[in-house]
């Protein structure tokens, strides 16, 4: 069997383009004893992957030139010689950016984040395991609840509010009894956020972000969930109330920067307002996965969580789907259907 | 009796100068029933006072034009009509920037930070209650131990290391079994820090602060105690290890800025390194005062804490002493002897 895969051809300077990627087709071996053949049905493109395209030490090793990229994928077992796996089973893995692969499940018994079986949930697309029920969902859950620690009646501000992470942050904050201010880059995204219960959806491209946040939260914000960095972070510091907590999840505004980006000009307020600004990596919160799945699964069942997906078609569209993350062309989770 | 006092004449633009202050002499009333007359022996000048010279909302109200400034002072009761106070008693108060004052101690029974009796400690100058045993000492103690949470064997970096706060941070970190890197602005200050047990004292004015910190802490830093902001904060982020904690105590490099100061250019590392950057105000940790006094008092008794004072003479020298905080003319606590 053959599998088409996407390889890193060169390290991007600035925003990634098609020229940074190769499309290649490889022959897969027939699955042997203890192995399964998996055909991916959906693969994920996520902002954090941009970091892995730099050759630098980080919490995950850099992608290597000439090798297939990696990332979350949801696939279906098509042939199994491994106990506990049957054709038709859904599996989650880090073997994205390719159509199919052969692995021995036993090798990942202690690493379920890399490969594990998924439940079938009636009425929920398997792609949800790449978004609201997957890594972005867990990121939203732990960042908001563990770092942000919102209390009922407080005001939560989330940037990148219409993205896979941000839209779940906004809705969990509502479930927790908070007033929610969310920013997004188009009026359509803002309208969708309002339909999902967000109190104040702000189009940051309309200008005067500070004024818009001040108008939405005249008493200031208690929690800021940062997906964006840049001006948003400065505005969050400016509008923060004393004792506010910042969950620093990402700074997509800076991922493609080729020169150093100056930080907020109002850092001094960190002292006077006793702010806590804390970065986090979702992989350090894997122990909360069962609680996350239980809570978010229940909220989905109760109809309290909405989500959107932007679906691109075919493995060859993956590089463009990835680049699209940085110009806001997705609402909700960006996935590629294979 | 007369008392000479320093008043705020105008709000400083940039570094404060003599022109921003008035010297005035007032007649004090004779102390009545329940009142004491106190003659100040030492008054404190502290960087945080610069913030109170701006007319803006903050955790303490701004100083008012035409009124005497306020600040910590240690004085001696010279006449008492209040129970529990006798001539010769030492008192701590916020009635600095003046030679003498009359108050009713009972009015401050619930606010010991504003006025309270001090013990006489043999061999320790009363001025120590403005520094190592006073607010700067408590600031060092809570910032390092509550926010920084250093563990034995970790590396602590402190800026403004030869100041009243920084020099105590450095020495408490040594007592807690840490490797200590401290920055200061002259070779003399660095030599003194080494004599107080600091492992690596860095003269930041010698240039290449980043290279100096990297050489001193090749594996990176676990805790940063920030008195300075600016380049120091950027270097601390750059050299931070995963999970490092930053106690944001002050940003003296920015207190006199007339234009917004751009923040660190490497903020994005807050995410990847899971940094926690937390501002704090010592007044929110008043409940730790007894524990602080017990610990630091014991360490002083054991000869494990050294401190220096820079003493200016006479009430008229107070404005210049205050301005001197911003050009590094003090080693250790800057006080004015009255």
Characterise the protein shown here.
2 copies of one chain form a homodimer. The first copy, chain A, is built from 9 helices and 15 strands. The two termini of chain A are 15 Å apart. Chain A is α/β, with parallel strands linked by helices and 338 residues long. The radius of gyration of chain A is 20 Å and the shape is globular. The first copy, chain A, has helices spanning 49-52, 135-148, 164-175, 187-195, 209-216, 230-239, 269-272, 289-301, 318-324, and strands spanning 2-8, 21-27, 36-44, 73-80, 90-93, 100-103, 115-118, 155-158, 179-184, 200-203, 221-226, 240-248, 276-279, 309-313, 333-337. Chain A has 2 domains: 2-131 and 308-337, Alpha-Beta Complex (Quinone Oxidoreductase, Chain A, domain 1); 135-283, Rossmann fold, CATH 3.40.50.720. Helices cover 24% and strands 25% of the residues of chain A. Chains A and B meet through helix 7 and strand 13 of A and helix 7 and strand 13 of B.
Number of strands of chain A: 15
How many domains of chain A?
A: 2
Distance between the termini of chain A: 15 Å
What's the CATH topology name of the largest domain in chain A? Answer: Quinone Oxidoreductase, Chain A, domain 1
Biggest interchain interface, per-side counts: A-B, 36 and 36 residues
Which percent range describes the beta-strand content of chain A? 25-35%
Radius of gyration of chain A: 20 Å
Output the number of helix runs of chain A: 9
The gross shape of chain A turns out to be globular
Q: What's the oligomerization state?
A: homodimer
Residues in helices of chain A, as a percent range: 10-25%
Order of helices and strands of chain A: EEEHEEEEHEHEHEHEHEHEHEHE
Contiguous low-pLDDT stretches of chain A (5 residues minimum) are none
- CATH class value of the largest domain in chain A: Alpha Beta
Largest sheet of chain A: 7 strands, mixed
